[in-house]
Amino acid sequence: VSEPAVTLPSPDALLGPPEVDAVYDAAAFMAVAVDVVVLTIRRGQLAVLLVWRQQEGGGSWALLRRFVLPDEDLDAAAHRELEDIGLASLPVGGHLEQLRTCASPGRDPGTRVVSVAYLGLLPELSEPQSSREARWLAVADLTHLAADGRCPVALDQWTIIADGVERARAKLEYSSLATALCDEPFTLADLRRVYETVWGARLDVANFRRKVLSTPGLVEPLGRRTAPASGGRPAELYRPGPARTLHPPIPRPVPAR
Amino acid sequence: VSEPAVTLPSPDALLGPPEVDAVYDAAAFMAVAVDVVVLTIRRGQLAVLLVWRQQEGGGSWALLRRFVLPDEDLDAAAHRELEDIGLASLPVGGHLEQLRTCASPGRDPGTRVVSVAYLGLLPELSEPQSSREARWLAVADLTHLAADGRCPVALDQWTIIADGVERARAKLEYSSLATALCDEPFTLADLRRVYETVWGARLDVANFRRKVLSTPGLVEPLGRRTAPASGGRPAELYRPGPARTLHPPIPRPVPAR
DNA sequence: GGAATAGTGTCTTTTAGACATTATCAA
DNA sequence: TTGATAATGTCTAAAAGACACTATTCC
Question: What is residue A163's three-state secondary structure?
Fold first, then answer.
């Protein structure tokens, strides 16, 4: 596109002060918490880390939640929550990003909580260790239960989890996120299984390989191979490359959309 | 992928209450505000709506900001801010979505503000009308100024604007967002100019047309044409279709990535 | 007719999908 | 050898990119 003439305020005009505004009116103060949707792959299934929360009249599984300290950054609060639950501090081949924010009424009428949801993705190794009762639950199981209206997670939290899963599925297409779900080093088969598990679809081995290796900066060969096992040719080992975004993307099979 | 055996807690096991946790510790209370990055196309340029904010030692352009009321939803606060600035209430061919959240220190030391950034996209018609000094500034101008370190927007706010622009650019690829930036009805040339302006790249007329019309649910022909102007064939008119996500996406030219 | 804008046809290159084949290990 | 897993080759179909061409309007 040819550069059109600048008809909006010119750079110099930007610097003159037209007028003062007064936007600051009544502000509501709320408690601020981070909720973390931690996803990993456990035994070939996509799993989310939840904690059991006892309540009057039963209980439910809930997301990791931590109130933000007065001098704490949001990202830092999310990281601390991961460390507190016993997962290695990131980054050790993991990924943590903001998901979305909602301001729901607090437990006491009148009080409100702003909860900033985060999405965390960890390689398979991680086992939570904490005084709290934290467990990996298969997303597929929860989805089936939710379809029956028997989801053991509060609806708003389940919505956040579903958003996180969808975000992860989408980002596999156009980012190097999948390498964050692999232990390092990994084989192309490992990486492919991540895609297959998160997307819930089989990928053609040859086409996947062609695509991954032709995407610059996605993976880097180590020049080593896996130790020979009982049967099977040893596989080439790789580590994550410098690329963060992928273009063109790894195409996601249509039925899973 | 064949369904693996469920090795994580079974649906029935999910319903038993293992243990109670106590996550609620010291909570910090913060003022909650929404910042809205409103983008539109003005005179062939991508523009963002900013207000002039007078401060000690000069002033700067700032995002629309509104503190959330005690009983107000975040989305509602963002909508209200748009109405307050004199832009027609959505949806009238517009789009509003959450961008991201940051918790920065407040103006007084020790106080903090959680600001939830929203991204709004409006068709060209909109002119702000308000007691506040609000103006459309060309994103390209701001980008050039920022490159010189002379950006008249505070750094954290400029980062949010840049995020919003990048989000808009990305979403044009795989969503029907562009139709929200067109007045209704629109021609394919109008729609194409939206893509060209936001992406800052020329698109081939024939290929764009083929792609848009072959994407199911993106646009719907009205069977009418534009009034004949002085020179030029009248163009077919369209309105937005029901599709919200596009697969396959409209490919973005590589140099702009 | 010319100028201006809208719309069409078609060829080439690239990419994706399907699937057969070869390679390298252990037992 | 067989069984198992990794890696490669190749054909076909679909999509993207380039670009020449036709159509409809006002002057």
Answer: helix
